Amino acid sequence: MQPTSSMNKEFLKKWQMGLQIFRPSIDNTSVSERKRAIKLSADVAMASLRKGTTCWSRALIQKTASEDNFLVRQMLSGIKEETLINKKLPKVMCHRKIVRRSKKILMRRKSRSAMEEVAAKAKKLVKRKTQGLRNAVPGGEFMSNNVLLIQETLDYIVSLQTQVNVMRSIVDAAAAGIER
Amino acid sequence: MSNRRSRQSSSATRISDDQMIDLVSKLRQFLPEIRERRRSDKVSASTVLQETCNYIRKLHREVDNLSDRLSLLLDSVDEDSQEAAVIRNLLM
């Protein structure tokens, strides 16, 4: 499961398309505006590779659209809007303090063996780390099923690697071209 | 297998052992700490999750750095120079 060369090519094409949209203004803008253009185009390009089939890509497109709706609509003109939106409601987050308090009360009533304690702590730790992962992947709040979370994570990582590899090649080539 | 039950429910279930083993094998290639251990060593679920998280955030930082570098490169170049043409051909 590695980024393929066809993924690289498709990403580059889409990214170039995005940058073209900024082209007229890119010469007259500040460095930070340019960086924003580069980054937003790269993110939409990466997400568009999945054509709305993964939760993370839909969430990323939504997020980018909230920052630059025009860009997203231009870059994704071929795709129907319905496929791009996460329709499920985000997982409801429980109020932590209240949950902790009621758990403490319940625990006082049970007597637990040492082994049970260890197992319970391990469970808690995994739960916390899973939530951390959910925060790192776009659209994680929509992934109530942990199996889905893992699948999306793996796909997201491969896509990120594609994005990084292509961007690095371009930046290195551009830097080398300038130094000559 | 008792794990099959948890696989089918859609509410937040614990990640089962099978799913974790699958994830570890796929992440081995990306995560140096886990790759370096011998195959027989067990890796805890929380470690795998943490390392995955760290790796994703590392990739985010790389994208950010590359965007910085590229925007500076575009800035440092004279409009009509040959270098500008090089970049334009690469990107636009």
UniProtKB/TrEMBL annotation, chain A:
Q: Determine if Transcription regulation is one of this entry's keywords.
A: yes
GO biological process: what's one of them? regulation of DNA-templated transcription
Give the main location. Answer: nucleus
The subcellular localization recorded is:
Nucleus
Q: Name one Pfam family in it.
A: IBH1_N
Q: Which residues form a coiled coil?
A: none
Ranges of residues in domain IBH1-like N-terminal: 5-66
Q: Which InterPro entries match?
A: bHLH_AtIBH1-like (IPR044549), IBH1-like (IPR044660), IBH1_N (IPR059002)
Q: Which GO terms describe its cellular component?
A: nucleus
Ordered alphabetically, the record's keywords are:
Nucleus, Transcription, Transcription regulation
UniProt name for this protein: Transcription factor IBH1-like 1
Native source organism of the sequence? Raphanus sativus (Radish)
> What gene name does this entry carry?
LOC108820742
TrEMBL record, chain B:
Q: State if Iron-sulfur is listed as a keyword.
A: no
Q: Provide the protein name.
A: Transcription factor PRE5
Question: Which superkingdom is the protein from?
Answer: Eukaryota
Question: What residue stretches are annotated with the BHLH domain?
Answer: 4-59
Which Gene Ontology terms of cellular component type are present? Answer: nucleus
Species of the source: Raphanus sativus (Radish)
Write out the entry's keywords from A to Z.
Answer: Growth regulation, Nucleus, Transcription, Transcription regulation
The GO terms describing molecular function are: protein dimerization activity
